[in-house]
Amino acid sequence: MDIEKIEKMSCGELVDLLIDDYGYCSIVKDKHEKELEERSIQLAKTMEEERFNAHKEEFQLEVLQQLQAEGIKKEGMELSSASPLISDTYIVDGVTLLSDDYIPDSVETDSLYEETSLIKSPYSLEYQEVNHKTGKRKLAWKESATLVLICNPIAYGKCEEIDVFLKGVKKPLRFPNGEISEEAFRRQTPFARKGRNVGVRKQFESFLLDLRECPNKKFLMIPKHAGGVTLPNGITTYISADSVIPGLKDQFPIEVREHQMVKHLLSLKDTAAIYLVRLCRTAWKLRF
Question: What is the phi/psi pair of residue 192, to 5°?
């Protein structure tokens, strides 16, 4: 609208014009703010999606590793929770022993002169041997330890035996006197070298690294006789053939393996109730 028309308008017409312009500006302003808000939300979603896609593999890898670790922990817990003879700690002469004190750190090697080294695959729990010159990788170890049992600890770092349960293997690897040596490992793991072009030393080194990371390292008290036995935690339990842990039968004395509990049709609670009634009757007769 040009200036001449505005100058010829009355005061009332000018007021109406200003009101109309204000309303129109207000509508435009609201519309612009709404569009700005919608664009901001869309931009935020786009940026969030881009960030997720950029780290998608990392998120998937983290979930995979958690699932694998939980699977191993669960399998070990199923084995260890089945017996009161297995515990997290062990006290000898007032000293609380820790399971990690019985696992060797690693194999002594000079990395400067080693042509190969070990890495743990980020997509699985297996260890691979990597050649520094060619970059080629070879499978070294995939049998993850699910449960490590330190049998009858004697002192710091000393025990009668260490038994290692591997994933998918029923019988444990046995290390007498708690000495986890390469020779004892080699004798018991020929199954792990079938179809694998890797040396025993690298496998043993992988095995030790895996033991350090095993979430289920426990202590096992193997009783010397059947009958009543007091556990390291002070609790008294009765030892019989039922106390023998699957896979560890040979470690238990013959007396324990052959000591069978008398089977009863009634539950322990019902049997105890019957004996209590009989005891009360006997006491009543003696009294009167």
Answer: -80, -5
